[in-house]
Structure formats: structure tokens, C-alpha cells
Design goal:
There is one protein chain. The chain is mostly beta strands. It has no helices and 15 strands. A five-stranded antiparallel sheet has the order 1-2-3-4-5, with no helix packed on it. It has a four-stranded antiparallel sheet with strand order 12-11-9-14, with no helix packed on it. β11 (about 120-125) and β12 form a beta hairpin. The protein is elongated. It starts with a strand and ends with a strand.
Length: about 160
């Protein structure tokens, strides 16, 4: 059976999806994947493949969410038992995920942007975080300049 997952706001299509008891398997890009189901809340699942990896975790913002960075990817982690955020509130939205410094501004006010396109880059925890548009539109405002320090949770840019 084919199934579509929504992961950090991106649709991922898998084939041969099977969910039996605490085990989930599927084929993605021709490769078979096996996972243990840790928890399920409606359509949202937390899966474990037994792998280990190093990750950097930010200090939680006002809502209690932290950014997790590993192997060049970012995700939002929520406190256990807390309802997970909907797809539009993905990592790299238009707010600062954590305190940092504006490293590079990629788009100017008035520029056309597509959903997911990087607008600026925030340097935090010795890593670069792409701040991406949450929708198609025009950059209405860039609130900070290169080199400025920002707090976590502040609005960095606006798209209309």
C-alpha cells in the first residue's frame, strides 16, 4: 500500500507501507526501512530504527520546543506529551529558533519567494540555520541586518 507522510512540512511518498503491532516498514527510494513504533497520536507517529547519531539541541523557546540539528538536517522537538506542531510551523520558519547572529541575508525586501526558499541564514551554536519562507509570496520586511544578534522566538522576516 502506498502512503504519504508529512515530515517537517514536506510530503514523502512511500510504497509497501505496513503497520503491524509495534512495527512499521515501508520502501522509500527503492530501499526497505524497518522501524519500531514508539508512540502514535492520530496521524502523527514517532518511529525508532535503533540507530544512533550525534545531534545539537537548542534551549527550548517560549512554547517549550527545541530545534534538533543532525547531519545538516533540522527538526522541531516538543516536550513529551505536548501536542506536536502542524506542518506550517516547521523548523526554519520566519522566527529565530534560538539566539544567534544574522550570518547572511539572501533575499531583499520585495523579492519573490517560494515556500521553503531560504531568506536568510542565522548562525547559532556554531551552525548555520536556514530561515525559510513558510509560503509563496514576496518578502515584506527583513527585520535584522548581517551581524546583528537576535533572541530566540523573534520575527526575523515577513512574507506576504
Amino acid at each position: 500500500m502506498e502512503k504519504i507522510f508529512l515530515i517537517n512540512g514536506q510530503e514523502i511518498k512511500v510504497q509497501d507501507y505496513q503497520h503491524t503491532g509495534d512495527s512499521v516498514s515501508f520502501i522509500l527510494n527503492g530501499q526497505k526501512h524497518y522501524y519500531m513504533l514508539i508512540s502514535k497520536n492520530g496521524p502523527e507517529m514517532i518511529l525508532d530504527n535503533g540507530g544512533r547519531f550525534k545531534a545539537a539541541v537548542s534551549t527550548p523557546n517560549r512554547e517549550g520546543d527545541s530545534i534538533v540539528m543532525s547531519n545538516g538536517r533540522e527538526a522541531i522537538a516538543s516536550a513529551a506529551g505536548k501536542k506536536m506542531k502542524k506542518a506550517g510551523a516547521q523548523a526554519g520558519g520566519l522566527t529565530s529558533p534560538m539566539p544567534g547572529k544574522i550570518f547572511k541575508v539572501l533575499k531583499e525586501t520585495g523579492s519573490e519567494v517560494k515556500k521553503g526558499e531560504a531568506i536568510l541564514i542565522l548562525e547559532a551554536m556554531k551552525m548555520e540555520h536556514s530561515i525559510r519562507s513558510d509560503k509563496d509570496g514576496k518578502v515584506k520586511k527583513i527585520n535584522y541586518k548581517v551581524g546583528e544578534l537576535v533572541q530566540g522566538g523573534v520575527t526575523l522576516a515577513e512574507v506576504e
